[in-house]
Write a structure and sequence with these properties.
Strand order of the largest sheet: 1-2-3-5-4
CATH class of the domain at 1-81: Mainly Beta
Distance between the termini: 50 Å
Largest sheet: 5 strands, mixed, barrel
Helix content: 25-40%
Strand content: 15-25%
CATH topology of the domain at 1-81: OB fold (Dihydrolipoamide Acetyltransferase, E2P)
Number of helices: 6
CATH architecture of the domain at 1-81: Beta Barrel
Number of strands: 8
CATH superfamily of the domain at 1-81: Nucleic acid-binding proteins
Radius of gyration: 20 Å
Bound molecules: zinc ion
Structural class: alpha+beta
Length: 251
Amino acid sequence: MSVFKTDAITLGRTDYSDSSQIITFYTRDHGKIRTIAKGYKRLSRKCSSKAIDLLTHYQILFIKKEHTSLHTLTEAVLQNDYPILRNNLDNYYRVSCMAELVNEFTEENDPSKQLFDVFLDSLTGISRNTNAIIQLLTFETKMLKILGYLPELKRCVNCKNSIQQLPEVYFNAAEGGVLCKTCQSKFRNGINVPLGAILIAERLVDINLQKLGRVKIQLPICIEIEKMLRYYITAILNKELNSWQYLKGME
Ligand SMILES: [Zn+2]
């Protein structure tokens, strides 16, 4: 039995008993963990200060138990609860979408400091309302790269020719990337994506998050990138994200 201290972002929570909850965190040092939080449940206004909120940055202390994946939360010190985020529903759902992606794409106790930092920086960026749509797209491409799921966006996955000059480009989730028109005809499914959207998505992967505030991308291009990423993510997870139904209004 050991006690650990780490930075954590709340991904989810469910009631466990009258006075305790199971809280899922994405932590910097331990990856996704599930903890039981006793006495942390929001019972009344009076003890709401002890409640653990979703999509919030804490520094937590927890006791790691062996032979079980459910650890015990002993302390959570609030670092940032992003008050502005809670007044903007669209941006709140964008961050919910990021949390859902982290939850779906990661295994418990499999840490990635890089993913944690990108998640925290993106959460901070959206909470400041800086380019929220672009922030989400950038987070998605960076997360896919960090976790080894980034699709091929430069060359046709079949013939390996560069797509730079092609008038028509397709994206095929099952093949893991872009296809030229000739090769597309040999495969099933796939979607037509404007070349500009693919080239910009490719640039978002390695963009410096601190400089994202200065980046401008036309809304129609953002919509095409989002369409392509949703199609790809759906194919990997074999389901759609819950938060997407709240984010339909992007168009
Ligand atoms: Zn090809």
